[in-house]
Amino acid sequence: MKLDYLQALKRVDEARGAWILYGQEPLLEQNLLDAFRKSWASHEIERQRYDLNSVADWKNVFNALNSLSLFSQNLAIEVHGNIKPDANGLKQLKQYIQHNEHNLLLVVMPKQDSASLKSSFFQTVEANGVVVALTANYPQDRQRILSIEADQLGVQLNQDAWTWLEQHHEHNLLAAKNSLMRVADTFPDQKQIEIEHLQQCLQDQSRYSTFDLSDALLAGNLALSVKIFQYLIESGEPNSLMLWTISKEMRLLMQLYEQPQNALQIGIWKTKVSSYQQALRRLNPRAFLNWPQLLLRIDAAIKGLSKENPEHLIQQCIAELCGKSLFIYP
């Protein structure tokens, strides 16, 4: 079964079997995970998390799913990574789906290409469980999602303000939500927010934005990148938003390195193609091998799943994108 984000939110309490969440909308991912974790806590369902670093890690996942918990009758196994199970893992997945009706396997993955969505792993879960695309491709979908966020904050925007907000954030839902929070704090008594309120609030409070950080990173300007990063931290920009910005640039650079003729197809704006090409010329492709693991460490640190300092790790990422390594790799 396929569900969109809003449909999935309504089915969180009844979720069992196998679910896959995939996409690159951090707001949607975090909201759904928060809803799942709240539901598990309220129903006294034990939660375990596994991060996939190799195919072999799936063995630990299925061992956990098929074991009896000492703490509760039901288990929720939360799996993060972009590694699909092998043939033996798929066999175990099918056995789990057929014989275990009480536990939940929740797999959280990044954006997938069309070939991946046709893989046996996705097809098996779609046929016997739930697959959720964490996307909002159309303006009306993004506005519906952000309207819910705005209602929770007690903010109402007119249609022109919605259009301006989307254009200002280039459809980045997490950044848009952050702006809604600022507007709610700045104009607590305003019944309806108009473009002028958004402009006044966002322009006054943000001398630098994550878009400025992206530009500085692509230019390889380490000093300016660190300065912008420090300003964003001081102004209350969430680490998750900066991780989204940095991971997007890393992903696009790695994809462009593999597909140098397909800049527009992989999502690079026409006016930015030359900036990415120049960045590739000064970067050492060997460094790309370390980027995915570094991003996973930042994500874990932000979520409190490790003792590492997320801001220190983000600065390490910034240095990497500027062609300067804080560590020497073998």
TrEMBL record:
<dbReference type="Pfam" id="PF21694">
    <property type="entry name" value="DNA_pol3_delta_C"/>
</dbReference>
<dbReference type="InterPro" id="IPR027417">
    <property type="entry name" value="P-loop_NTPase"/>
</dbReference>
<dbReference type="InterPro" id="IPR048466">
    <property type="entry name" value="DNA_pol3_delta-like_C"/>
</dbReference>
<dbReference type="GO" id="GO:0009360">
    <property type="term" value="C:DNA polymerase III complex"/>
</dbReference>
<dbReference type="GO" id="GO:0006261">
    <property type="term" value="P:DNA-templated DNA replication"/>
</dbReference>
<protein>
    <recommendedName>
        <fullName>DNA polymerase III subunit delta</fullName>
        <ecNumber>2.7.7.7</ecNumber>
    </recommendedName>
</protein>
<dbReference type="InterPro" id="IPR005790">
    <property type="entry name" value="DNA_polIII_delta"/>
</dbReference>
<keyword id="KW-0808">Transferase</keyword>
<feature type="domain" description="DNA polymerase III delta subunit-like C-terminal">
    <location>
        <begin position="210"/>
        <end position="315"/>
    </location>
</feature>
<comment type="similarity">
    <text>Belongs to the DNA polymerase HolA subunit family.</text>
</comment>
<dbReference type="GO" id="GO:0003677">
    <property type="term" value="F:DNA binding"/>
</dbReference>
<keyword id="KW-0235">DNA replication</keyword>
<dbReference type="InterPro" id="IPR010372">
    <property type="entry name" value="DNA_pol3_delta_N"/>
</dbReference>
<dbReference type="InterPro" id="IPR008921">
    <property type="entry name" value="DNA_pol3_clamp-load_cplx_C"/>
</dbReference>
<dbReference type="GO" id="GO:0003887">
    <property type="term" value="F:DNA-directed DNA polymerase activity"/>
</dbReference>
<feature type="domain" description="DNA polymerase III delta N-terminal">
    <location>
        <begin position="20"/>
        <end position="132"/>
    </location>
</feature>
<dbReference type="Pfam" id="PF06144">
    <property type="entry name" value="DNA_pol3_delta"/>
</dbReference>
<keyword id="KW-0239">DNA-directed DNA polymerase</keyword>
<keyword id="KW-0548">Nucleotidyltransferase</keyword>
